[in-house]
Amino acid sequence: MTRFDPSENHARTLDENDEIAHLRDEFYLTEGEIYLDGNSLGLLSRRAEKTLLAVLEDWKRFGIGGWTNGERPWFYLSERLGEMTAPLVGASPDEVVATGSTTVNIHQLASTFFRPEGKRTKILATELDFPTDIHALGSQLSLRNLDPSEHLAKIKSRDGRTISEDDAIAAMTDDVALILLPTVLYRSGQLLDIERLTKAAHERNILIGFDAAHSIGSVPHRFSEWGVDFAVWCSYKHLNGGPGAAAGLYVNRKHFRKPPGLAGWFGSEKGRQFDMAHEFASAASAGAFQIGTPNVMSLAPLLGSLEMFEEAGMEAVREKSLRLTGYLMELAGSELSSMGFFVGTPGEGERRGGHVALEHEEAARICEALKERGVVPDFRAPNVVRLAPVALYTSYLEVWEAVRILKGIMAGKAYEKFENTRGVTA
């Protein structure tokens, strides 16, 4: 086995051999700053800026005609972005559409696929889910006069960090009507075995969907091949679509023509949206699950951002992401383990997404000290310093430098001047 090399020269060598390093030049990077929070908000790229400005120019030039004129007619923008996103999740172009927000899309698809009947009245999630998923699922239960405390089942974690697939399958009991699980856990970065869980759910006649917010753009999926029923995600993390960028959803084609739980005019067949008919003519694609008029300005940056994924290829992005996170974990083990840090992210590549969770009792204070020294991390309560080296723009040298800075903070106890409490967003 090759001995791990923690030297700066090794980091530079890794960068020299990086086949997609040129894409780093596409992004606006701040001099003197190491940005490791791309799993919360990705950076602006020049291509995303270009396509946003192009849409603004179309508005200036065409006015309302921008819906059907220009290089990128707004009327078809959500579907066009669905086609561009489909390869990232392993779906057919018509199974994906860019629309709404993650929470809105959870409401839409839960209201569509949750059909309690007989003893099947429960929704299954995990106790480590991001809160919005639980809030939305609880609301869907309440709307059906079902008490969330009784009908929202949560898979327990054995260690407070990860979810066992065995435990998830054991929880797929005959009173469960719908399952929504994360692809990657937002705190620890654990990647679930989506194929295995989908197969197990279908063997028990349960529909299953996934929240891919923390995997889209860092982990390739094969949703159609695996038979996943539906999925949702946001576009402002690894997809670099900008703050509040339009989200996306996937619906397996076997569910096409299923009436959306929340119908709206943009889910109609394109040729009939302006018929002013009160009968809903559902689109024969994932487009049926759109609700209202798309936010064109929130869609526009994705046109440029997704071009880079087409250029790099999702497999190359994943390969570099695994190398970056693996390198970070090795450095943490070598340089930080004696300073009270514990790596809470699974070490196996097939079990981790695109970020690393460093656990420490002083995590909130450490994050503030990192920011003061030009490293942008992410704090997750109660004790996680979350670091996301993003394949498209993070260098190995930056990862090495971030760990060096963190080691210096700990050695000098520079974090002690900050309170151990989180800010508004992190």
Description of the structure:
The chain has helices spanning 8-16, 46-62, 77-89, 102-113, 131-143, 148-151, 165-170, 194-203, 223-226, 296-312, 314-335, 363-372, 396-412; strands spanning 34-35, 96-98, 122-126, 152-155, 176-182, 207-211, 230-233, 248-251, 342-343, 356-359, 375-376, 378-380, 384-387. The protein has 426 residues and is an alpha/beta fold. It folds into two domains: 8-31 and 313-417, Aspartate Aminotransferase, domain 1 (Alpha-Beta Complex); 50-311, Type I PLP-dependent aspartate aminotransferase-like (Major domain) (Aspartate Aminotransferase, domain 2, 3-Layer(aba) Sandwich). The strands form three sheets. Strands 2-8-7-6-5-3-4 form a seven-stranded mixed beta sheet, with helices on both faces. Strands 9-10-13-12 form a four-stranded antiparallel beta sheet. A two-stranded parallel sheet has the order 1-11. Helix 1 runs antiparallel to helix 13 and helix 2 crosses helix 10 (296-312).
